[in-house]
Amino acid sequence: MARRARTASHELALATRATKDAALETMAAALLAAEAEVLAANAEDCARAEAGGTPPNVVDRLRLTPDRLAAMAQGLRDVAGLPDPVGEVVRGSTLANGLELRQLRVPFGVVGMIYEARPNVTVDAAGICLKSGNAVLLRGSSSAAGSNAALVAVLREAAARAGLPADVVQLVPADSRDTVTHLMRARGDVDVLIPRGGAGLIQAVVQGSTVPVIETGVGNCHVYVDAAADLDMALAIVLNSKTQRTSVCNSAESLLVHQAVAEEFLPRVAAALREQDVTIHGDAAFAALEGVLPATDEDWGTEYLALEISAAVVPDLDAAVAHVRRWSSGHTEAIVTGDLAAARRFTAMVDSAAVMVNASTRFTDGGELGFGAEIGISTQKLHARGPMGLTEMTSTKFVVTGDGHVR
Fold first, then answer.
1. How confident is the model at residue 197 (pLDDT cuts 50, 70, 90)?
2. What's the CATH superfamily of 221-363?
């Protein structure tokens, strides 16, 4: 399978942008045409998951709807409309000895994906890898086996109709954990591995893989309401960050409030969160409010992915930063403030992949940031950090042109 992907990647490297974009457009149209079949397969996956006692937030990640399928197709079209990073000159110059130096963007070659539940990853990864010149090996979870099989069948057939090898997209069987081990040990056949899912999956891949890994991270994301915040704005941002969709890694899991606005803001935000059925795990100031549960250290470090949030009052911005530095997973943090100096200090001191100023944490997303889609959100610092779009799925090489130069 990996060798077929390698061969396909060589053919893909020769494809023009027009051919790749046409393939993406064909894939998008094919997804919409196959809506009934894909949703039927997904319904079986979801029913099996619910019968097995899978938590509702995980089932939500697994579930496809007509709107979500349409969004996946639109993501492919958006990627098709973006500039092709392959061949872009990162830097170039003519050296003093006359040699012409160019550093160009090139594909990785073969990308392996190991991911849980979310079948939208199947389509996003396939689209981004194709446009960036990479073949992709997709190893989804067994819970989404039917959905992924239906999606990949559509994508492969569409790629072939567009004149590309079907093997640019391949589904790795999910019926055995041995297939995960094989991907992790396929150094030389697979160029880079990207895990996407819970902390356990990610750490297992990072620690057990001999293939280079780009580490995506869990999202223990914070919203800090500063002393200079517009409290109406703050309330809207907190609610959107927490409740717009709870099962995703960019939803807020912790709320910090400056003590200068706590007396006014705490009753408002607690009542608004209760109206959305959000359980609050709070420090002493929050726990004094009706319905708030006392928070523990475990709460401060938890990615709930549910209608739950930890909350605390802090004496100042530096205390908020210290709390974030201790408990954050390095994904996304937000500050709500009307003080430019406070915003600058927060963004400079918080060491996360994305920092929002007066905006919801839910914007840490490739589609929302104009990347068309994303293959994951990296929380590491090497190669890529934050939402990974087309550019992040390339490496570089140097092309040096001389005229009989010798050293």
1. confident
2. Aldehyde Dehydrogenase; Chain A, domain 2 (3.40.309.10)
